[in-house]
């Protein structure tokens, strides 16, 4: 634990760890799936709510699942995302991880995050969410590893995933030290 605290202190002193609030990381597209009633999802092609089923295209299923997750309708998000192909869609895997983690199923969430990283090790949003999951488990060192990777991948551009995870880490350390 001392190594982790020293690591956080070094990040603070190097100006690498900040708690400046920013908008949530991820896609900023404005679909309307979170306004559809239960059992219905937003179909971006039809531009209306439709019954959820596997005939929707991959992007519509992803966007509907993501929007349900952001609306904190996690069980519905999992149901919709499970209709999508997870074989080669890091986005779907990420939000399956996110929704499961938010429901308290941290290990299930981590499994999905690892699958998404296997598809794309440079996917910073999944690294942010994985870092948050690791903090939930009390694994500060693991979360710091994700933060370092995000910083490397952002190449000094100050991406929101870095800022968001850094803020979570700072809050975690503050709570541990109080």
List the helices and strands and how they pair.
Blueprint lengths: L1 H12 L26 E4 L4 E4 L6 H13 L3 H8 L8 H13 L3 H14 L4 H13 L3 H15 L5 H18 L1
Antiparallel strand pairs: 1-2
Helix pairs in contact: 2-3, 2-4, 3-4, 4-5, 4-6, 5-6, 6-7, 6-8, 7-8
Quaternary organisation of the protein chains: single chain
Helical fraction: 55-70%
> Rg from C-alpha positions?
17 Å
- Low-pLDDT segments, ≥5 res: 1-34
How many helical elements? 8
Q: Which outline best applies?
A: elongated
| Lateral arrangement of strands in the main beta sheet | 1-2
Task: Estimate the strand proportion.
Answer: under 5%
Distance between the termini: 15 Å
Largest sheet: 2 strands, antiparallel
Question: Tally of extended strands?
Answer: 2
| Average predicted local confidence, pLDDT | 81
Output the helix-strand order: HEEHHHHHHH
The assigned structural class equals: mainly alpha
How would you concisely characterize the structure shown here?
Helix content is 60%, strand content 4%.
Written overview of the protein:
The structure is a single chain. With 178 residues, this protein is mainly alpha-helical. It contains 8 helices and 2 strands. A two-stranded antiparallel sheet has the order 1-2. Strand 1 and strand 2 (48-51) form a beta hairpin.
């Amino acid at each position: 634990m001392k190594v982790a605290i020293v690591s956080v202190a070094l990040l603070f002193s190097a100006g690498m760890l900040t708690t400046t609030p920013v908008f949530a990381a991820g896609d900023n597209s404005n679909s309307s799936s979170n306004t559809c009633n239960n059992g219905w999802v937003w179909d971006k092609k039809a531009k209306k709510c439709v019954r959820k089923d596997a005939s929707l295209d991959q992007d519509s299923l992803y966007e509907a699942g993501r929007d349900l997750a952001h609306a904190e309708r996690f069980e519905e998000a999992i149901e919709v995302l499970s209709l999508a192909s997870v074989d080669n869609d890091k986005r779907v895997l990420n939000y399956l991880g996110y929704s499961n983690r938010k429901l308290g199923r941290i290990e299930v969430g981590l499994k999905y995050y690892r699958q998404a990283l296997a598809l794309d090790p440079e996917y910073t949003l999944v690294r942010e969410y994985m870092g948050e999951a690791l903090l939930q488990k009390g694994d500060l060192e693991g979360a710091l590893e994700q933060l370092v990777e995000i910083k490397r991948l952002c190449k000094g551009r100050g991406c929101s995933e870095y800022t968001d995870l850094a803020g979570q880490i700072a809050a975690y350390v503050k709570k541990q030290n109080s």
